[in-house]
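Hey,
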Amino acid sequence: MALTNAYLVTTKNLEAFLNSLQSAKAPERFTTKFLTQLDFTSSNDRLFIGLLKGLGFIDEAGVPSKRYYEFLDQTQSGRVLAEAIRDAYSDLFALNKSAQALSADEVKNKLRTLTLGQKSDNVVSLMANTFKALTDIADWESPSPEASQPVNPLTPVPPANTPTGTQPSIITASPKPAVTDPHQQLDTSHHPLQLHYDIQIHLPESRDPAVFDAIFQALRRHLT
Protein backbone atom coordinates (compact mmCIF):
# COMPACT_ATOMS: atom_id res chain seq x y z
CA MET A 1 0.00 0.00 0.00
CA ALA A 2 1.19 3.50 -0.65
CA LEU A 3 0.24 7.13 -0.62
CA THR A 4 2.63 9.58 -2.21
CA ASN A 5 3.32 12.82 -0.39
CA ALA A 6 4.15 14.57 -3.67
CA TYR A 7 1.94 17.45 -4.70
CA LEU A 8 1.92 20.54 -6.89
CA VAL A 9 1.28 24.09 -5.73
CA THR A 10 -0.45 24.73 -9.04
CA THR A 11 -1.65 22.21 -11.62
CA LYS A 12 -2.19 24.60 -14.53
CA ASN A 13 0.98 23.41 -16.29
CA LEU A 14 0.64 19.72 -15.44
CA GLU A 15 -0.73 18.55 -18.79
CA ALA A 16 1.77 20.68 -20.72
CA PHE A 17 4.58 19.21 -18.62
CA LEU A 18 3.50 15.62 -19.29
CA ASN A 19 3.18 16.39 -22.99
CA SER A 20 6.70 17.81 -23.00
CA LEU A 21 8.04 14.48 -21.72
CA GLN A 22 6.69 12.78 -24.81
CA SER A 23 8.22 15.26 -27.21
CA ALA A 24 11.70 15.19 -25.63
CA LYS A 25 14.32 12.48 -25.56
CA ALA A 26 14.40 10.74 -22.21
CA PRO A 27 17.40 11.90 -20.14
CA GLU A 28 19.86 9.63 -18.40
CA ARG A 29 18.83 11.42 -15.23
CA PHE A 30 15.90 13.75 -14.73
CA THR A 31 17.40 16.86 -13.09
CA THR A 32 16.40 20.48 -12.60
CA LYS A 33 18.69 21.28 -15.52
CA PHE A 34 16.69 18.98 -17.78
CA LEU A 35 13.48 20.48 -16.41
CA THR A 36 14.77 23.92 -17.42
CA GLN A 37 15.54 22.61 -20.89
CA LEU A 38 11.85 21.70 -21.14
CA ASP A 39 11.08 25.40 -20.42
CA PHE A 40 9.75 24.80 -16.92
CA THR A 41 11.87 27.26 -14.99
CA SER A 42 9.85 28.48 -12.01
CA SER A 43 10.43 27.26 -8.47
CA ASN A 44 6.97 25.66 -8.46
CA ASP A 45 7.92 23.63 -11.53
CA ARG A 46 10.61 21.84 -9.54
CA LEU A 47 7.84 19.97 -7.77
CA PHE A 48 7.30 18.06 -11.02
CA ILE A 49 10.42 16.04 -10.23
CA GLY A 50 8.99 14.89 -6.90
CA LEU A 51 5.72 14.04 -8.61
CA LEU A 52 7.53 11.88 -11.20
CA LYS A 53 9.21 10.01 -8.35
CA GLY A 54 5.87 9.52 -6.62
CA LEU A 55 4.37 8.13 -9.83
CA GLY A 56 7.28 5.76 -10.35
CA PHE A 57 8.46 7.45 -13.56
CA ILE A 58 11.95 8.00 -12.14
CA ASP A 59 13.82 6.59 -9.15
CA GLU A 60 15.27 8.56 -6.26
CA ALA A 61 18.39 9.29 -8.33
CA GLY A 62 16.27 10.65 -11.17
CA VAL A 63 16.90 7.71 -13.51
CA PRO A 64 13.90 7.05 -15.79
CA SER A 65 12.07 3.77 -15.17
CA LYS A 66 10.38 1.36 -17.56
CA ARG A 67 7.13 3.22 -16.84
CA TYR A 68 8.69 6.47 -18.03
CA TYR A 69 9.61 4.90 -21.38
CA GLU A 70 6.17 3.29 -21.73
CA PHE A 71 4.60 6.70 -21.13
CA LEU A 72 6.49 8.09 -24.14
CA ASP A 73 4.25 5.97 -26.38
CA GLN A 74 1.31 8.30 -26.97
CA THR A 75 -0.96 5.38 -27.85
CA GLN A 76 -0.74 4.08 -24.29
CA SER A 77 0.37 7.10 -22.23
CA GLY A 78 -3.09 7.64 -20.71
CA ARG A 79 -3.31 4.03 -19.56
CA VAL A 80 0.25 4.10 -18.18
CA LEU A 81 -0.56 7.25 -16.22
CA ALA A 82 -3.69 5.62 -14.78
CA GLU A 83 -1.62 2.64 -13.60
CA ALA A 84 0.93 4.98 -12.05
CA ILE A 85 -1.82 6.85 -10.19
CA ARG A 86 -3.27 3.61 -8.84
CA ASP A 87 0.16 2.62 -7.51
CA ALA A 88 1.04 6.04 -6.09
CA TYR A 89 -2.35 6.41 -4.37
CA SER A 90 -3.09 2.76 -3.63
CA ASP A 91 -4.22 3.59 -0.08
CA LEU A 92 -6.86 5.90 -1.51
CA PHE A 93 -8.03 3.29 -4.01
CA ALA A 94 -8.22 0.78 -1.17
CA LEU A 95 -10.89 3.02 0.40
CA ASN A 96 -12.70 3.50 -2.89
CA LYS A 97 -11.82 1.42 -5.96
CA SER A 98 -13.20 4.23 -8.16
CA ALA A 99 -11.33 7.00 -6.38
CA GLN A 100 -10.70 8.72 -9.71
CA ALA A 101 -14.43 9.52 -9.85
CA LEU A 102 -14.51 11.23 -6.44
CA SER A 103 -14.86 14.99 -6.20
CA ALA A 104 -11.97 17.11 -4.94
CA ASP A 105 -13.72 17.58 -1.57
CA GLU A 106 -14.32 13.84 -1.25
CA VAL A 107 -10.68 13.14 -2.03
CA LYS A 108 -9.62 15.75 0.50
CA ASN A 109 -11.69 14.11 3.25
CA LYS A 110 -10.26 10.68 2.44
CA LEU A 111 -6.72 12.09 2.54
CA ARG A 112 -7.35 13.63 5.95
CA THR A 113 -8.11 10.14 7.22
CA LEU A 114 -5.18 8.51 5.47
CA THR A 115 -2.65 11.10 6.66
CA LEU A 116 -3.92 10.75 10.25
CA GLY A 117 -4.31 14.51 10.55
CA GLN A 118 -0.55 15.03 10.27
CA LYS A 119 -0.83 17.26 7.20
CA SER A 120 -2.07 20.81 7.29
CA ASP A 121 -5.39 21.57 5.64
CA ASN A 122 -3.56 23.50 2.93
CA VAL A 123 -1.24 20.59 2.10
CA VAL A 124 -4.13 18.12 2.04
CA SER A 125 -5.96 20.43 -0.36
CA LEU A 126 -2.90 20.60 -2.65
CA MET A 127 -2.57 16.81 -2.56
CA ALA A 128 -6.24 16.43 -3.46
CA ASN A 129 -6.00 18.96 -6.30
CA THR A 130 -2.91 17.23 -7.68
CA PHE A 131 -4.65 13.86 -7.58
CA LYS A 132 -7.72 15.22 -9.38
CA ALA A 133 -5.60 16.94 -12.04
CA LEU A 134 -3.77 13.69 -12.72
CA THR A 135 -6.94 11.61 -12.92
CA ASP A 136 -8.47 14.08 -15.38
CA ILE A 137 -5.58 13.45 -17.78
CA ALA A 138 -5.31 9.68 -17.36
CA ASP A 139 -7.17 7.06 -19.40
CA TRP A 140 -9.33 4.89 -17.15
CA GLU A 141 -11.04 2.94 -19.91
CA SER A 142 -8.21 1.15 -21.72
CA PRO A 143 -7.36 -2.27 -20.22
CA SER A 144 -3.81 -3.19 -19.37
CA PRO A 145 -2.13 -5.37 -22.02
CA GLU A 146 -0.97 -7.66 -19.21
CA ALA A 147 -4.52 -8.19 -18.03
CA SER A 148 -5.38 -11.84 -18.28
CA GLN A 149 -8.16 -12.82 -20.62
CA PRO A 150 -11.10 -14.78 -19.22
CA VAL A 151 -10.79 -18.48 -19.94
CA ASN A 152 -13.75 -20.31 -21.44
CA PRO A 153 -14.11 -23.50 -19.40
CA LEU A 154 -15.25 -25.28 -22.57
CA THR A 155 -12.09 -24.38 -24.45
CA PRO A 156 -9.55 -27.24 -24.37
CA VAL A 157 -6.21 -26.28 -22.85
CA PRO A 158 -3.13 -28.18 -24.11
CA PRO A 159 -1.07 -30.01 -21.46
CA ALA A 160 1.70 -27.88 -20.01
CA ASN A 161 4.51 -30.18 -21.19
CA THR A 162 3.10 -31.00 -24.61
CA PRO A 163 4.95 -29.23 -27.47
CA THR A 164 2.90 -26.93 -29.68
CA GLY A 165 1.34 -28.70 -32.61
CA THR A 166 1.45 -32.16 -30.99
CA GLN A 167 -1.74 -32.01 -28.94
CA PRO A 168 -3.75 -35.20 -29.17
CA SER A 169 -7.21 -35.12 -30.65
CA ILE A 170 -9.90 -36.86 -28.63
CA ILE A 171 -13.10 -38.00 -30.28
CA THR A 172 -15.93 -39.10 -28.03
CA ALA A 173 -18.73 -41.21 -29.39
CA SER A 174 -22.34 -40.75 -28.40
CA PRO A 175 -23.36 -42.81 -25.36
CA LYS A 176 -25.01 -46.09 -26.27
CA PRO A 177 -26.53 -48.91 -24.27
CA ALA A 178 -24.44 -52.03 -23.72
CA VAL A 179 -26.32 -54.74 -25.63
CA THR A 180 -24.69 -58.14 -26.13
CA ASP A 181 -27.09 -59.42 -28.79
CA PRO A 182 -27.70 -56.81 -31.50
CA HIS A 183 -31.02 -58.55 -32.33
CA GLN A 184 -32.17 -58.57 -28.75
CA GLN A 185 -34.79 -55.98 -27.96
CA LEU A 186 -33.63 -53.54 -25.28
CA ASP A 187 -35.64 -54.06 -22.11
CA THR A 188 -35.03 -51.67 -19.21
CA SER A 189 -38.05 -52.64 -17.16
CA HIS A 190 -36.08 -54.95 -14.83
CA HIS A 191 -32.51 -53.74 -15.20
CA PRO A 192 -31.15 -50.19 -15.10
CA LEU A 193 -29.88 -48.77 -18.35
CA GLN A 194 -26.10 -49.11 -18.59
CA LEU A 195 -24.12 -46.70 -20.74
CA HIS A 196 -20.53 -46.68 -21.85
CA TYR A 197 -18.40 -44.34 -23.95
CA ASP A 198 -15.93 -45.11 -26.71
CA ILE A 199 -12.95 -42.75 -26.72
CA GLN A 200 -10.46 -42.60 -29.58
CA ILE A 201 -7.11 -40.90 -29.07
CA HIS A 202 -5.06 -39.85 -32.10
CA LEU A 203 -1.51 -39.66 -30.78
CA PRO A 204 1.00 -37.32 -32.41
CA GLU A 205 4.08 -38.58 -34.19
CA SER A 206 6.84 -38.15 -31.65
CA ARG A 207 9.71 -40.14 -30.18
CA ASP A 208 9.80 -38.03 -27.04
CA PRO A 209 8.31 -40.02 -24.10
CA ALA A 210 7.54 -36.72 -22.32
CA VAL A 211 4.93 -35.94 -24.98
CA PHE A 212 2.98 -39.12 -24.25
CA ASP A 213 3.40 -38.71 -20.48
CA ALA A 214 1.83 -35.25 -20.73
CA ILE A 215 -1.06 -36.61 -22.82
CA PHE A 216 -1.95 -39.39 -20.41
CA GLN A 217 -1.59 -37.08 -17.41
CA ALA A 218 -4.08 -34.71 -19.04
CA LEU A 219 -6.47 -37.58 -19.72
CA ARG A 220 -6.24 -38.70 -16.11
CA ARG A 221 -7.07 -35.17 -14.91
CA HIS A 222 -10.09 -34.69 -17.13
CA LEU A 223 -11.59 -38.19 -17.19
CA THR A 224 -11.37 -39.18 -13.54
